[in-house]
Design goal:
Layout lengths: L1 E5 L3 H13 L3 E5 L2 H10 L4 E5 L7 H10 L5 E6 L4 H9 L4 E4 L4 H19 L6 E4 L2 E4 L4 E4 L2 E4 L2 H12 L4 E2 L1 H8 L9 H16 L8 E4 L3 E4 L3
Parallel strand pairs: 1-2, 1-3, 3-4, 4-5
Antiparallel strand pairs: 6-7, 7-8, 8-9, 10-12, 11-12
Length: 229
């Protein structure tokens, strides 16, 4: 598994690189957003460890650029800003996870491995596409959602959310149900992250011509229900 560390503090970058390499990962480092985008364009990575405070271009901007380019690698943000609005801003930029500085390397490693396991779990045994309703097919192996000749790539957490909805089609899922299943074990997140990612998923569905709330319905004051129609 390959990791890109985007961190302008060379001491931190070196320590993280050494730690992940000891765990068997292939690791590259970048000290700025521009350098990171160049490396991503030249080589595929499974995970990016991204500091929020970077020179010239913030980690939030880098993350948005990565997602706008259609790259679905796992993004774990690092930041000393620990307020709930800061974490929501990071997740809203497209990050899959948000780790507060200072942190123990063991925690960051555990987060990387957890996302790695989720990715393997979504692939399935035969990598067959799944009918998720409204004329859409989902390929869990590459997290691609297709409608006729159009397709979009889901991030890891968007794919987790879609999988949870499909497996509970027609059943009311409260925000707490969704939070406990997908985010509670990560730490540092508030329940507001559920609405953020439901919004992401709806935008991906809308990009394929599916009315934004026809598949993922809001049940006012209670939660969400997936209606495959």
């Amino acid at each position: 598994m390959s990791i890109l560390i985007v961190e302008d503090d060379r001491d931190i970058s070196t320590l993280l690189k050494r730690g992940f390499e000891l765990e068997g990962y292939q690791v590259d480092c970048a000290g700025s957003g521009e350098e990171a985008m160049g490396k991503i364009a030249a080589k595929p990575y499974e995970t990016m460890i991204l500091d929020v405070m970077l020179p010239r271009q913030s980690g939030l901007e880098v993350c948005k650029d990565v997602r706008d380019a259609g790259n679905d690698l796992t993004v774990i943000m690092l930041s000393a800003r620990d307020a709930v609005p800061d974490r929501i801003e990071g997740l809203s930029a497209g990050a899959d996870d948000y780790v507060i500085k200072p942190f123990e390397f063991a925690e960051l490693l555990a987060r990387v491995k957890a996302h790695e396991r989720r990715g393997r779990g979504m692939r399935g045994a035969d990598d067959e596409r799944i009918d998720v309703g409204a004329g859409l097919l989902f390929d869990p192996a590459i997290r691609k959602l297709e409608a006729d000749d159009n397709s979009v790539l889901l991030t890891e957490r968007e794919a987790d959310l879609l999988n949870l909805f499909v497996n509970n089609a027609g059943k009311l899922l409260s925000r707490m149900d969704l939070f406990d299943t997908l985010w509670a074990g990560d730490g540092g997140n508030s329940i507001n992250v559920v609405d953020v990612y439901v919004g992401y998923l709806r935008r991906k569905l809308a990009a394929l011509g599916v009315p934004s709330k026809s598949l993922v319905k809001t049940v006012r004051g209670k939660g969400f229900m997936y209606d495959p129609q």
